[in-house]
C-alpha cells in the first residue's frame, strides 16, 4: 500500500480547511451546496490537500453554527489517493477552520 495513505490512515492528524479560498463562507458553500470540500493534512511535507466528495448522510453539522463561526462540523467523504480508494473523516472547528482527521482505506485500485 502507498506510504502516504498508510500514514494518514494510522491515528488522527492535524487538518485544516484547504483549497484555493479556505474561508468560513467558502467552506459552508462547499459543505452545503457543492458537496465537495478540501481537507488539508498539514503535517505532511508541504501539506496534502485532498478534494473530498461529501457524504451528506455521514456529515454532521448539528453541533455547529456557520453564522456564529462556532462548533465542530464532522465531515466524511470519499476520494482516491495514489490509486487507493479512501474515506476521509475530519472534525473541523469553525472558529479556526482547523481540527483533526484521518483516512479509512476502502480498497486499492490497480492502474
Describe, in short, the structure shown.
The chain is α+β, with helices and mostly antiparallel strands and 111 residues long.
Description of the molecule:
The protein has helices at residues 3-8, 24-34; strands at residues 13-17, 36-41, 48-54, 64-65, 70-81, 84-93, 98-108. With 111 residues, it is α+β, with helices and mostly antiparallel strands. It has one domain (3-108): Core binding factor, beta subunit (Polyomavirus Enhancer Binding Protein 2, Chain: A). β4 (64-65) and β5 form a beta hairpin. The two termini are 13 Å apart. The mean pLDDT is 95.
Q: Report the β-strand fraction as a percent range.
A: over 45%
Could you say which overall geometry the principal axes of the C-alpha atoms support?
globular
End-to-end distance: 13 Å
The ordered string of helix (H) and strand (E) elements is HEHEEEEEE
Largest sheet: 6 strands, antiparallel, barrel
Query: How are the strands of the biggest sheet laid out side by side?
Result: 1-2-3-5-6-7
- Mean pLDDT equals 95
Name of the CATH homologous superfamily: Core binding factor, beta subunit
Gyration radius, in Å: 13 Å
The unreliable regions are none
User: What's the CATH class, please?
Assistant: Mainly Beta
Number of strands: 7
Features:
single chain; 111 residues; alpha+beta; Polyomavirus Enhancer Binding Protein 2, Chain: A; six-stranded antiparallel barrel; 2 helices; 7 strands; 15% helix; 48% strand; globular
Amino acid at each position: 500500500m502507498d506510504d502516504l495513505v498508510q500514514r494518514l490512515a494510522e491515528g488522527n492528524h492535524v487538518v485544516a480547511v484547504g483549497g484555493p479560498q479556505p474561508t468560513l463562507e467558502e467552506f459552508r458553500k462547499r459543505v452545503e451546496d457543492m458537496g465537495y470540500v478540501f481537507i488539508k493534512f498539514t503535517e505532511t511535507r508541504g501539506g496534502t490537500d485532498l478534494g473530498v466528495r461529501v457524504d451528506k448522510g455521514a456529515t454532521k453539522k448539528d453541533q455547529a453554527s456557520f453564522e456564529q463561526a462556532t462548533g465542530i462540523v464532522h465531515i466524511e467523504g470519499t476520494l482516491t489517493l495514489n490509486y487507493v480508494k479512501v474515506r476521509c473523516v475530519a472534525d473541523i472547528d469553525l472558529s479556526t477552520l482547523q481540527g483533526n482527521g484521518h483516512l479509512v482505506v476502502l480498497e486499492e485500485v490497480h492502474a
